[in-house]
Fold:
Amino acid sequence: MEINSFFRNLRAISLRVVHITLLPNTRAMHLINDLASYAEMYKHLVEIAPAYSMKNKETDPGELNTKLLQNVEELTLNAIQQQKKIEEQNSKIEDPQHQKKIILQMQKRLDKLEVSQLKYWHFIL
Structure:
């Protein structure tokens, strides 16, 4: 009977965590570079114990599920953010008006540079 009640409690905890985890801004997202350097240095994810530690100690499945769901949430939010950036960059590349605007800005800068260089050389000569 104790095992059945344990799994019932675990299931209830897991269901509550799913609802809590998917709320926006539940915790700050880690930058990908920070995560990569952390994983390379410590050989495990942030807030997730390494495998050898889990073998030696009793690990609370509910706590582990919570941490894994938080990591999944962070990865999902990061993927969404990256996709938005990609779409924004693609729209700028494909938009001829944007390209014209950039070319005109560069032309104005070049014209100013040429004028200043002419003034400089006239001053020297």
About this structure: The two ends are 100 Å apart (CA to CA).
